[in-house]
Amino acid sequence: MFDLARQMLRLGQDVELFTGNPLCRVDNDLRPYAKTYPYLHVLAALRHRIPPAPKTTWWQDRDLEALGRWLARSANPETTDILDGLDGPGPAAGRLMKQHGKAWICNRGSAHILTQKSLLEEEHRRWGAAAPCFSPSHLERCLEEYREADAVVVPSNFAKRSFLEHGIGADRIYVRPYGVDLSMFHPKPKPDPVFRVLFVGNASIQKGIGYLFDALRPMVQRRCCELWLIGGQDPSAKDLLTKNSDIFVYKGIHPRSSLAPLYSQGSVLVLPSIQEGLALVLAQAMACGLPVIATTNTGAENLFSDGVEGFIVPIKDPPALRTRVDWMIGHPVERANMGEAALERVKSLGGWDTYGEQCLAMYREVRARKHQTA
Q1: Is residue 358 part of a domain?
Q2: Is there a single domain that holds both residue 220 and residue 238?
Q3: For residue 55, what are the β-bridge partners?
Q4: Does residue 151 lie in a domain region?
Q5: Are 208 and 146 in the same domain?
Q6: What is the pLDDT along the chain (374 residues), one digit of tens a residue?
Q7: How distant, in Å, are the alpha carbons of 130, 225, 236, 367 from that of 331?
Q8: Fewest CB atoms within 10 A around its CB: which of 3, 37, 139, 206?
Q9: Structural domains counted in the chain
Q10: Residues 56, 288: Cα–Cα separation, whole Å
Q11: 161 in the same domain as 39
C-alpha cells in the first residue's frame, strides 16, 4: 500500500494514507501524507513478543476493529473519491463512502479468506502443527467487505479464481499484479560456481517449506546443491526447521534494500507456497537475473511462462520440485538463458509504475460505473 500511495502521488493524485503503523514505520517520503493510529497495533505486536505466545487472535482482532472504527471517523467522504483499503478492519468506512456516492475498493493480497483458511488448516494437520486461528469475527468482517465493496482487487489470477469459487462476480474482481523496484533489484555477477537454491520469505507451513526440504534433502546430501533460507522463521514450522537444519544455511532477516546482493549468490529461486496472492520475491529474483521455480498458487502465471523464465509446478509435489531443480543443475546454458529471459520479462512488466497506472485506471472505471448506475 505504501508503494501504491507513492504511485498515486507520482500520477498527480491527492493521497491520504491511513495506517496502524506508528509514524516511524512509515517511509520518510510518505509521512507528510500519513495519518496513523498505532496504539493497539503496537500493543498487539508487543504481546506477541512476550512468551507464552497467544493462542488466539484476540489482540489482532481488537487492533483491526479499532483501526476500522478510527478509519470511519477519520476518512472524509466529502473530499474522498476512492477508498482503497486492505481487507480486515471491517466495512464501516466503506459503507460511509458508499452512502455519500463514493467508491469503495477492497484490496486483498491473498486468496479468498475461506480458500486460505481451508488450505492452511489442511496443511497444518498434514505437518502436525497447530492450525492457524481464523476468528469468527475476523472472517465475518472480511466476508462483509467482499460482499459490499464496489470492487475487489487481487494481485493474481490464482487469487481471482478463489473469489469466483466463492460467488464473487467476475465483473467486480480486478487483477493488478504487484510491481518491483528495478533500480533496487538488478543483476550482479555471481561470486562463485556453487549451485545454490534460494528460498526467500518467511519459512512457514504456508510457504511449503516442508515440501522444499523433502525435495532437496537427497540433492543437498549428495552435494549437488546448497540451500539458503533468507527471511523469518515461523513458529508453526519450528519442528520442521529443527529437523532439517542440517541441509540449509540460514541467512537471517534482511530489509528489501539489502536483498539484491543475496539474490546474486543464488542459481535459482524456489517458492513452493501453498497459497499467496502474488509473491513479491518472484519478481525480485527475476529482476536479478534468476530463473524461478514456483507453485501454481503463488501468482507465478501472472509473472512468467512455464518453461521460459522458469517452471510452474503443482503444490505439495516434492518430486516435481526435485525434477526441475535437477534439470537446472544439468542444463547450465539453458538455465542462464532462462535467467536472461526472466530479467527481460520483468522489465517488460514495467515495475511499480505500471501497477500504479493500472490501479488508477481501475479507480476511474469503478467510479464511472457508480455514476452510471446512480
Answers
A1: yes
A2: yes
A3: none
A4: yes
A5: no
A6: 999 999 999 999 999 999 999 999 999 999 999 999 999 999 998 988 888 878 889 999 999 999 999 999 999 999 999 999 999 999 999 999 999 999 999 999 999 999 999 999 999 999 999 889 999 999 999 999 999 999 999 999 999 999 999 999 999 999 999 999 999 999 999 999 999 999 999 999 999 999 999 999 999 999 999 999 999 999 889 999 999 999 999 999 999 999 999 999 999 999 999 999 999 999 999 999 999 999 999 999 999 999 999 999 999 999 999 999 999 999 999 999 999 999 999 999 989 999 999 999 999 999 999 888 76
A7: 41, 14, 36, 51
A8: 139
A9: 2
A10: 39
A11: yes
Q: C-alpha grid cell for residue 199?
A: 528460498
Is residue 317 included in any domain, yes or no?
A: yes
Question: Does a cis peptide bond (omega within 30 degrees of 0) precede residue 52?
Answer: yes
The span from the CA of 250 to the CA of 280, in Å, is: 20
For residue 343, the one-letter residue type is: L
User: What is this structure's pTM?
Assistant: 0.94
Note down the domain range covering 236: 196-349
For residues 138 and 156, the answer to whether their CB atoms sit within 8 Å is no
Residue 247: how many other CB atoms lie within 10 Å: 17
Task: Say which CATH number the domain at 155 has.
Answer: 3.40.50.2000
